[in-house]
Each structure stands twice: as structure tokens, then as C-alpha cells.
Specification:
Structural class: mainly beta
Shape: elongated
CATH superfamily of the largest domain: von Willebrand factor, type A domain
Strand content: 35-45%
CATH architecture of the largest domain: 3-Layer(aba) Sandwich
Number of domains: 6
Radius of gyration: 54 Å
CATH topology of the largest domain: Rossmann fold
Largest sheet: 6 strands, mixed
Distance between the termini: 152 Å
CATH class of the largest domain: Alpha Beta
Length: about 675
């Protein structure tokens, strides 16, 4: 048997506690009004004890549940149908329930089973959750079996719970019947016997269901920027206006502080900062929130002014600032929500104030929400911020589907044109953070429109790429199929030795491709690099110097990356037309004239050298050698020779005037001169 101390727990859990019963919990108090309730306990009628105890409890508690009251045996003697719903399930009304309880005058029988069924039906127990609490002191007296009824109700109910309180019940059968309802439906069966125990128990119920309200926790004050969601820094003026009394409470506090103690009630709240104002409503007292969040709306541009609040990935964002600044202050871009003590080091997303009054920052490549932040490293840290959004990069590249290796491809493009952005052709397997190191293989993306891009010399699948330098990644790319260009050569059949001839050619122009003369019959895998490669790199037509030795040669186009020898052209190298004119004998130190003509290739020189000197020797001093051409400083005589004035050496002996083909490092003509 349970002790009387279980009674307040039952009442607290099932009848009146707002914390245990969810909103719209519905239950009925089923009160025994049979004649036995006039029985006495310690000299006082049981019905009087029950009325007084319940009314006291009703006056001291609160709940959001719907509560009804059903009584039985209180109107007629001997009538088993004497069951009445005194209060239907309604929002908790202690006065209405108290009046109904006081109206109960015990008279008749105990139709316990029928009364429980009626209470359950009033709660629509077959459709909704329902709770019935029986307060009684006797057994069923109308011929029904409470235990059978309890089983039927449990079987047909959605979620029916019956709790039974036996008040001064000494009858074993009556006890068994009340227990059946509780045990069949998962409810509680409790017993109480003395008035003082009941009073003490109800006092305990009051402590559980209606304790003294706790002092509300302090109200945390939070002010946030409406644009960025970031906390507003600095002092804020808070004004609380009571909704009923119009009492105004004003104070200064930073975001994150706790409000001073305020009278309970509803308040209109106004918050003022240097940047703007915000308004909100707040409740103080039971049920208040722990935090009051107010959004501050800027009243005027302060701190940072952006050229736009939406930019494309990789696009330049211009930022100006209206606040006082220091030379070492700097601005930068970070994702929105990044820690306030974080700042960017990337030169293209960072601007130092001393570098100019406008920051030109490049937007990130990844779309999303970002902030421009104004930072003072020395003391204050983050001073201002301005939010903006980055959208997908709007880069367009229109190009043909294929291009010749080593040639050029013409494209139409548009894009951010941010500082140092690039356009180039790259193999498809290049990483997106890679660009050509060779400046000749890329073009600066400075002015959208038409552009000619160099095509790599290697055939295969490639892409035209737009590269954002600041973001070190590709913002857009389109496919390009690079095909191999067959090589061809066009040149004269005969060329004088050492002369310069113009050669038109086509070919891949791959790295290391070369154009050169080779004696006829030389193996196909022989080639020259160096200046021969420079000729190809410069493009067609090429100005190439013929060999110094007459004979049969081949002009060859050689590509190491594309299979070796791609084209050849047979050319005969003829004797050069070289002439030298000078005295045979001169005195030392004597001035004399020298005439010369020859192939006139770039670098060809005429000079005076000791006769025994090797053919690979020439004067080191520029004043001692002459260029047999229009820019060499001589004059052209009637015979087509360029004439120069020389001074004979101071040392007597035999000398030679020599014409040297500089590209071939070979002497093409010589004339003996004797110095006395």
C-alpha cells in the first residue's frame, strides 16, 4: 500500500502542473458524491475535508491544461444513473471548479464503472489522450464490474490513464476495484486516511505545482549589424519604455552586457549607436527570454563604401572609406563569418591605406557571402566591415574549335580584366592553378574584345583558359583541338655564299624547331639549334645566311618535338661576289683608301690583319674593322665598292685585307698589303 505522501505527486503530475502537462492536456476529476462521503474522519465529514483541501490547492496552482469535473451519487438516493458532468473540460478555471466542488452534496449510490466510462467519453478517449482522476471512498454499488470496464476502456482508448485515490477506504473489495482502473490503464493507486495528512500532502503539492516564482535571469543585450549580422562595437544607448506605465529606463551599455533590473512587463526598446538605430520588443518577468537581440540599421554610410554589393568572381571591387584613417591601416576581403581577429595577406585582396584613397580589391573565385574589412593592426583591430556577395564569374570565350600547332588563334572574350589576369592555351591535363611561364605563350587579359593567342607547338587536346591571377585559378575554359601544321619551305634555287636570303616557311614552330642549311647527303637526324631556332621563333619569312663554302646544300626545317625533319629544299650555294681594292704598298702610318663589297650579311666585316694570323682572327677594337654596307661609315664608289680610309700599321711587314662572313666565321676574300 502506498503512503499518503504519494498523493501530492499524483496531483502534481496529473492535475495541475504546467511543467508536467503539455499545452492542451485534458483530464477530468471524478468526485465520489455517494452517501458514504458523509462519513467522518477525526470528527469531520469527509466531503468537507475534500472540498476544503481541493479548493485550497486550486487557488495556489496554475496550469495550461483543460480540466473538467464529474460527480456521481450527489443528487438522488438509490439512482444508479446519478452521474453529472458539472464542468466540461475547459481551460483551467479555479473559481468555476471550486464552485462546482462546493455544490456536491452526497446522497446516493456508487455507479463507479459507469461514471468512469462517462468521464472517459467526455474526454473523447477513443480519439485523443485522456486522463481521469478518481477521488472516492467506496466500492461499486450498481452491479457493474469495474475491473471489466477498466479492461474495455484500456482496449478501446487511444491513450487513457485512470488514477485512483482512495480516501478513508477500508473495504477490501472497494480497494480492489479502484486498483483495477489504475493497474489496467497504467495509472497510480494511492490511499489517504487522515485530514492532517491530506492537508500536509496538498501543501506538498502546492510546493511542486506552484512554487514561488524564481527571480528571472538577467537579460543579455545583443546589438547586431543588420547588413552583416556582426556584433556592433562601442557604446550603445539603450532605452526601455514600459508598455503600460510608459516609464522610461535609459542607460548606456555595450553589446553583450546585461540589462539592469527592470519592472515586469512588456517594453518597447530603442537602441542607438554611432552608425544607426534599432528597435525591438522585450518581455521582463516570468517567461522572459534570456537574450534580447536588436538589429542596428545604418542611418548613413560610415566607414566603408563599396562600388557594388554584388560582384562577379575575380572582378575588381572598388572600396572607399569615410572614417579617420592611419597610414598603416589596411583593407581586405574575407568570407563572411570569419573570426574578427583574422585578416588576409594576399596582395590582391588587401590594400594598405598609404597606397591610395581607393582600394581595388579582387573578388574571390568562389561564389558566396564575403566582407570587406578595415583593420588597424596596431591597436583596435577590426574597425569597420561591409558585406557583399560574389556570384559566378561571367567570362565568355568564343573561339574556333581547332587551331594549328605553333600558330595563332583569334578569340572574342569578356571577363573581369583584373590586374595581371591572363589568357592562354594549355593542355587539358594542366592543373587549374598553372599558367605558362613563357611570357610569349600568354596574353594579358586587359581589354575585352578580339585577341590573338599563341597556340602551343604540340598537337592534341587543349583548352583556352581565362586565369585569375589574384585567385591563382582558372575562371573559364573552352576546348581547342590543336592540329599539326605540315612544314613547307620556299627559297631561291641558287644563293651566293655568305649572302642573306629570305625564306618563307610554315611549320609547328615548336620549342627548339630550327631552320638551317646542311650539305646535301647529310643524315636526316642532324640538325642545328641556337640561332637556327631563333629564326623559327621570329616567324616567316626568315632571313638566313648562306654557307661560306659553295656547293650543293639543303635548306631544312627540323622539329624535335614533332618527328624530326619535316621539310627540305635543295639549294646551290654559288661563289660569292666579293671584291677588295687597296694599294699593294704603303708606308707605315700612311693613310690610304680601302674599297670592299660582298654578300653584306649582318655582321660581315672588313679589316687589316697580319698575314700569318689565322683565318679565325679579327681585330678586337671596333675602330679597326668596318662593315661593308650602307651603315658601315664608308661611301659607295662608281664600281659598287664601299670605300673606307685606313691608317697603315706602325710596324712594317706583310699584312692582309680580309673580308669575313660573320655568320659563317669564314674569310671570303683577302688582299695582300706590304707596309714599309
Amino acid at each position: 500500500m502506498n503512503s499518503l505522501r504519494s498523493l501530492p505527486i499524483l496531483l502534481a503530475v496529473l492535475l495541475f502542473t504546467a511543467t508536467a502537462l503539455p499545452a492542451q492536456e485534458r483530464f477530468i476529476l471524478l468526485v465520489d458524491g455517494s452517501g458514504s462521503m458523509w462519513g467522518e474522519v477525526d470528527g469531520e465529514d469527509k466531503i468537507v475535508i475534500l472540498r476544503r483541501s481541493l479548493e485550497r490547492l486550486l487557488a495556489e496552482i496554475t496550469t495550461e491544461a483543460e480540466v473538467g469535473l464529474v460527480a456521481f451519487g450527489h443528487r438522488e438516493k438509490g439512482n444508479c444513473n446519478d452521474i453529472e458532468e458539472l464542468v466540461p473540460p475547459l481551460p483551467f478555471d479555479p473559481e468555476l471548479l471550486g464552485a462546482a466542488i462546493r455544490s456536491i452534496q452526497p446522497k446516493g449510490k456508487t455507479p463507479l464503472a459507469a461514471a468512469v466510462r462517462k468521464a472517459a467519453e467526455s474526454l473523447k478517449y477513443t480519439e485523443e489522450r485522456a486522463t481521469v482522476v478518481i477521488l472516492g471512498d467506496g466500492r461499486e454499488s450498481c452491479g457493474m464490474d469495474p475491473c471489466t470496464t477498466a479492461e474495455e476502456l484500456e482496449a478501446t482508448g487511444v491513450d487513457l490513464t485512470v488514477h485512483a485515490i482512495a480516501f478513508d477506504l477500508a473495504d477490501e473489495e472497494g480497494t480492489r476495484q479502484l486498483k483495477c482502473f489504475a493497474q489496467s490503464t497504467g495509472g497510480l493507486f494511492l490511499e489517504a486516511s487522515k485530514p492532517d495528512e491530506l492537508v500536509a500532502a496538498l501543501e506538498q503539492v502546492r510546493e511542486v505545482v506552484a512554487p514561488e516564482p524564481a527571480e528571472p535571469a538577467g537579460l543579455a543585450l545583443v546589438a547586431r549589424d543588420s547588413a552583416t549580422g556582426a556584433p556592433v562595437k562601442g557604446a550603445l544607448q539603450w532605452t526601455f519604455i514600459h508598455g503600460e506605465t510608459e516609464v522610461v529606463t535609459a542607460f548606456e551599455a555595450a553589446s553583450g552586457a546585461t540589462a539592469p533590473k527592470l519592472a515586469p512587463g512588456e517594453y518597447d526598446v530603442v537602441v542607438e549607436s554611432a552608425a544607426g538605430i534599432g528597435e525591438a520588443r522585450a518581455r521582463v518577468g516570468p517567461g522572459q527570454a534570456t537574450e534580447l537581440v536588436v538589429e542596428i540599421v545604418a542611418t548613413a554610410p560610415v566607414g566603408l563604401v563599396l562600388s557594388s554589393d554584388t560582384v562577379q568572381a575575380g572582378q575588381v571591387l572598388d572600396v572607399e572609406w569615410t572614417a579617420d584613417s592611419a597610414p598603416d591601416d589596411f583593407l581586405f576581403i574575407l568570407p563572411r563569418g570569419a573570426p574578427d581577429n583574422q585578416y588576409a595577406r594576399d596582395e590582391y585582396r588587401r590594400h594598405v591605406v598609404r597606397d591610395g584613397p581607393v582600394a581595388r580589391l579582387v573578388a574571390p573565385a568562389e561564389p558566396g557571402d564575403y566582407e570587406v574589412r578595415y583593420f588597424r593592426l596596431a591597436a583596435d583591430g577590426l574597425l569597420y566591415r561591409a558585406a557583399f556577395r560574389v556570384t559566378e564569374a561571367a567570362v565568355t570565350i568564343d573561339s574556333p574549335p581547332e587551331a594549328l600547332a605553333g600558330g595563332m588563334v583569334r578569340i572574342e572574350w569578356s571577363g573581369p580584366a583584373a590586374p595581371r589576369d591572363l589568357l592562354f592555351v594549355a593542355p587539358v591535363d594542366w592543373k587549374l592553378n598553372t599558367y605558362p611561364l613563357d611570357e610569349d605563350a600568354r596574353v594579358a587579359a586587359t581589354a575585352p574584345g578580339t585577341l590573338d593567342l599563341p597556340v602551343p607547338p604540340t598537337p592534341g587536346r587543349h583548352e583556352i583558359r581565362y586565369f585569375s591571377w589574384a585567385n591563382a585559378t582558372v575562371l573559364a575554359r573552352v576546348p581547342l583541338d590543336v592540329t599539326l601544321l605540315a612544314a613547307s619551305l620556299s627559297a631561291p634555287d641558287k644563293v651566293p655564299a655568305g649572302s642573306v636570303t629570305s625564306v618563307e616557311f610554315t611549320g609547328p614552330r615548336a620549342e627548339g624547331d630550327s631552320l638551317f642549311f646542311m650539305p646535301e647527303g647529310t643524315e636526316d637526324n642532324r640538325y642545328f639549334g641556337g640561332e637556327s631556332s631563333d629564326l623559327v621563333r621570329k616567324g616567316s619569312p626568315a632571313q638566313i645566311t648562306a654557307p661560306a663554302e659553295p656547293g650543293r646544300y639543303e635548306l631544312r626545317y627540323f622539329s624535335r618535338e614533332n618527328g624530326g625533319l619535316l621539310a627540305r629544299r635543295a639549294i646551290t650555294i654559288t661563289e660569292p661576289e666579293v671584291a677588295l681594292s687597296a694599294p699593294r704598298l704603303v708606308q707605315r702610318g700612311e693613310r690610304f683608301e680601302l674599297g670592299a663589297k660582298g654578300p653584306g650579311a649582318p655582321g660581315d666585316i672588313v679589316f687589316l690583319m697580319e698575314k700569318e694570323a689565322g683565318d679565325n682572327r679579327y681585330p678586337g677594337a671596333l675602330n679597326d674593322r668596318f662593315s661593308p654596307g650602307p651603315d658601315g661609315g664608308g661611301f659607295l664608289d662608281d664600281e659598287g665598292l664601299y670605300v673606307f680610309e685606313l691608317v697603315a700599321p706602325a710596324q712594317p711587314g706583310q699584312y692582309e685585307i680580309r673580308y669575313m662572313s660573320w655568320p659563317n666565321a669564314a674569310v671570303l676574300a683577302r688582299r695582300t698589303l706590304i707596309v714599309r
